[in-house]
Amino acid sequence: MVSAPALRDALVNGLGDGGTFVVDMTGVTFLGSAGLAVLVEAARLAQQSNAALKVVATARAVTRPLEATGLGEVFSVSDSVDAALS
């Protein structure tokens, strides 16, 4: 909840430019509903802006909520930034 607004601002500003936007969540230790909501909003924005939103996640703290909510199917999830960009 604390960092979700900063994540939202970064995503909204970055996705407005189009192109590919990679969210590197390798250092994230908790992903709750506020963070998931921001990612869903960003996915919609990316679609509207013809941008690509890619998520880098390896920690179970991130992958599990994505899988449990079905959002792992919505996002392009990679295990490294290099993999996300290729």
TrEMBL record:
Matching InterPro entries: Anti-sigma_ant, STAS_dom, STAS_dom_sf
PANTHER family linked: ANTI-SIGMA FACTOR ANTAGONIST TM_1081-RELATED, ANTI-SIGMA FACTOR ANTAGONIST TM_1081-RELATED-RELATED
Homology family: Belongs to the anti-sigma-factor antagonist family.
UniProt keyword terms in alphabetical order: Membrane, Transmembrane, Transmembrane helix
TM annotation in the entry: 20-40
Key word Transmembrane helix present: yes
Keyword Transmembrane helix assigned: yes
Organism: Lentzea indica
The STAS domain, residue ranges: 1-86
Identification of the protein by name: Anti-sigma factor antagonist
